[in-house]
Amino acid sequence: MAKTVLILNGPNLNMLGSREPEIYGHETLADIEKLCTDFGDELGLKVDFRQSNNEGELVEWIQNAGGGADAAILNAGAYTHTSIALLDAIQASGLPVIEVHLSNIFQREPFRQESYISKAAVGVICGFGAYGYRLALDAAAGILGDK
Ligand code: DQA
Predict the structure, then answer these.
(1) Does residue 80 have its Cβ closer than 6 Å to ligand 1?
(2) Ligand 1 nearest atom to the CA of residue 13, by list position
């Protein structure tokens, strides 16, 4: 049976395409979802792609993923830099999580250079725009193939 990768997107990522395109690129979230499902098909992975502006909803999706998904890719948006609740959820789920950011957060404001997600993530991909999601899926396939 195909393994499932949950791809979670946090606040304001529904605005991609029109949101500061010089930082986040011109692709919409729907474009990124298509990129992920197409590449997931090539890799033989089932992709479950979601977005929420609500921290609690993201926490619940991670909690529930512990029972269903095999790995997760998480762009937590601004919650990356603030959310101990997301960190706790990742640690409680035991799920391998790959952290993704469209922008290179290490070249940006100091408050973006701290990530609670990184403390529990298997690895971090940032600065490659939408292509970072493809890199993360490839990494997920590698992790799941090794299991
Ligand atoms: C982001 C970086 C965050 O600092 C920011 O709050 C976002 C998007 C990125 O993908 O580059 O919303 O996660």
Answers:
(1) yes
(2) 12
Q: Tell me the whole-structure pTM to 2 decimals.
A: 0.96
Q: Three-class SS string for 76-112?
A: CHHHHHCCHHHHHHHHHHCCCEEEEECCCHHHCCHHH
Distance 102 CA to ligand 1 centre (A): 7
**Domains of the chain (ranges plus CATH)?**
3-145 (3.40.50.9100)
Q: Residues 18-73: pLDDT tens digits? A: 999 999 999 999 999 999 999 999 999 999 999 999 999 999 999 998 668 999 99
The catalytic residues are 24, 101
89 vs 66, 79, 96, 97, CA distance in Å?
A: 10, 13, 12, 11
Would you say the CB of residue 15 lies under 6 angstroms from ligand 1? no
Radius of gyration of the chain (CA): 14
Half-sphere exposure for 133 (CA within 13 Å, toward CB) = 28
Do 74 and 49 contact (CB within 8 A), yes or no? no
